[in-house]
Structure formats: structure tokens, C-alpha cells
Amino acid sequence: MRKFIRMITNNFTYKILAVLIAMFLWFFAHSEKTSEITLKIPILINNMPADEVIINDIPRYIEVTLSGPSSAVFNYAENKPVYPINLIKTDVGNYIFNISPSEFHFPSGIKIITLYPNSISISLDRMVSRTVDVGVSIVGNPPDNYELKGIVTEPDKATIIGPSTIISNINVLMTIPVDISKFKNTITLMVPLSTANYKMVTVQPQAIVVIFKVKHS
């Protein structure tokens, strides 16, 4: 009996202090205000092959609504979490990545209320290059008593670079429109080539020399 009493009374002050701290922590954990916030978690694409490109529109964020102790919820938000998608073993084609709440590593006590979207579709295509003819887009006609005798381009071809499914259908790349309604003599212009109608396509050179041969009729 004495041994039991000594076990209780030995370092009695520290034991009382430990009990008080434990009670305080328990009280704090159970009395802390619950908060609910909606976060936009950025989607991070990792390890995409250098010769491939995503050709469809994918969301930039995953929206999650979280509920839990205020300190835990806001601390999680301040850590700026991201959602990674790894494309290291993917090839050209279509993929669906399902998003599960279990993939998020939330602190204890935090629950997901909503999650959107719950899947992401990604279409991958091969980046290729191709040489095509160039054409000149014109607007209007020369003034009265003048006529366009011919158009010369330098160079007469260009190299386009982009997703194979897109550039395989391009045979001629046009310039931006040129208004010739005031041309009364031969004029040489540097005119940009237009890729506005072709998503994710670039061109070299970006502009060509165009000679408009206009003469009095």
C-alpha cells in the first residue's frame, strides 16, 4: 500500500501539471471552431514526354470544399497544395484520370464536403513538323484603271510545327489579309503568316516577303 502511495505522490506536482495540460489540449481540440472553406488546388502535369502535347482543354484547378477545425483547415490551405498528374508512362491517345478523396493527405479532423471535377480527361498528340505552301490573302481590288498582274512570295513555303492531327490537314498556310484597294503600283510588303485558325501551331518563318504587281490597265 505504501509503495502505491509513493507512486502517486512521487513527482506529484509534475503529474498534476501533465494532467492539466492534457485536459487543456482535449478541451481546446473539442471546443475549437469548425470552419468550411473552398480551395482551388492547382493541377500539376509531371513527366510529359518532350515530343507530345495535350490537345484538349483541361481544368487548371480542382475545387474542394473542406470542413474541420479552423486551425487545421487554414494551415492546410497555407501550405499551397497541388494535385500532380504523372504522364511518364503515357503515349499518344486519350486518358481518364479519376480523382479520389483518398489521394489527398489531409490533417486529422478534416473532411471533404465536395470535390470537382472527379475525373480529368487528357488527350495526347505527337508534335511534328511539316513543310507547306504559302498563300496570300487579299481584300478588295485595285482602284479603277489598275489591275493586279501577279503576286510573288519569298519564300514560297513555310515549316509548320504542331500536333500531328492538326497539321496533317494543312496544305497551304495563308498570310493575314492584305487590303490592296489603294495599290496603284508594284508594292513589296513583309506580311505575317496566320496560324490563328490552328490551335497550338507555330510557323517558321513568321512572315514572308510579298510582291504585289499592280499596273495601270
Name the structural class. Answer: alpha+beta
Could you say how many structural domains there are in total?
Answer: 3
CATH class label of the largest domain = Mainly Beta
Poorly predicted ranges (pLDDT <50, ≥5 residues)?
none
Principal-axes geometry comes out as: elongated
| Biggest beta-sheet profile | 6 strands, mixed
Output the number of helix runs.
4
CATH fold annotation of the largest domain:
RNA Polymerase Alpha Subunit, Chain A, domain 2
- Average pLDDT confidence is 87
Strand content: over 45%
Based on the structure given, which CATH architecture of the largest domain is correct?
Beta Complex
Instruction: Report the end-to-end length measured between terminal Cα atoms.
Output: 127 Å
**CATH homologous superfamily placement of the largest domain:** YbbR-like domain
Order of helices and strands: HHEEEHEEEEEEEHEEEEE
Number of extended strands:
15
Fraction of residues in H or I helices = 10-25%
Rg of Cα set = 34 Å
Verbal overview:
This protein folds into three domains: 1-31; 33-117, Beta Complex (RNA Polymerase Alpha Subunit, Chain A, domain 2); 128-216, Beta Complex (RNA Polymerase Alpha Subunit, Chain A, domain 2), CATH 2.170.120.40. The radius of gyration is 34 Å and the shape is elongated. The longest helix has 20 residues, at 12-31. The chain has helices spanning 2-9, 12-31, 70-78, 164-167; strands at residues 34-46, 52-54, 61-69, 83-86, 93-98, 111-116, 119-135, 138-139, 146-154, 157-163, 172-174, 178-179, 187-192, 202-204, 207-216. The chain is of the alpha+beta class and 217 residues long.
